Amino acid sequence: MRTLTEQLTQYAKYHRDPRNIATHFVGIPMIVLAIAVLLSRPAFEVFGIVWTPALVLIIASIVYYIKLDVALGALMALLLVGVYQLALFLSAGGVSDLLMWGVGLFVLGWVIQFVGHYYEGKKPAFVDDIMGLVIGPLFVVAEALFMVGARKQLQEDIESVAGRVVISKPKVSA
Questions:
Q1: Domain tally for the chain?
Q2: Which DSSP string do the residues of 8-64 spell out, in sequence order?
Q3: Is residue 19 part of a domain?
Q4: Quick check: 113 and 31 in contact, CB under 8 A?
Q5: Helix, strand, coil tally for the chain in percent (to 5)
Q6: Phi, psi torsion values for 169, nearest 5 degrees
Q7: Is residue 128 over pLDDT 80?
Q8: 173 in any annotated domain
Q9: By the 8 A CB rule, do 120 and 16 touch?
Q10: How confident is the model at residue 171 (pLDDT cuts 50, 70, 90)?
């Protein structure tokens, strides 16, 4: 299993343009919520716990994130529990709500992602490494932490390999 730094560095190599990163702050949460909505059915009870495919996927993701980094994993757990609760609310009205929210958010989220990769000039990370689909949400949370000055050593370790975020200057014609 690759380390947290290795996973985030691999993902960061495809995400150095701030416009691309910005689209990921919108698109990835939409996609994660969409998947949770779409997997919120069927629901079945085992030992007094109502289980859904979304809950199983979220638990598996949290376990993986905690194995990578306890603190980030705990933060991801809090966020994913919130996503799960919102997904249950959005899909509560029936199959039409489930499909409307799930498919709508999924498609719109991916459109936003691809706009970001247009700016980046690179394909999405998951094309070369399927783990990019799992690391994407963690990347967004890590980037948010970097923006507020947290996890500086992790940021430096990633940037030493992937490079710094490149802020392109607008072209000015004379």
A1: 1
A2: HHHHHTT--SHHHHHHHHHHHHHHHHHHHHHTS-S-EEETTEEE-HHHHHHHHHHHH
A3: yes
A4: yes
A5: 70, 5, 25
A6: -90, 140
A7: no
A8: no
A9: yes
A10: low
Q: Can you tell me the distance from the alpha carbon of 139 to that of 123, in angstroms, rounded to the nearest whole number?
A: 16
Range of the structural domain that residue 8 is part of: 4-161
169, part of any domain? no
Whole-structure pTM value = 0.89
Q: Which residue has the tokens 């923006």?
A: 147
140: tokens are 């967004």
Q: Are 85 and 35 in contact (CB under 8 A)?
A: no
Interval 51-103: pLDDT, tens:
999 999 999 999 999 999 999 999 999 999 999 999 999 998 889 999 999 99
Asked whether residue 167 is domain-assigned, the answer is no
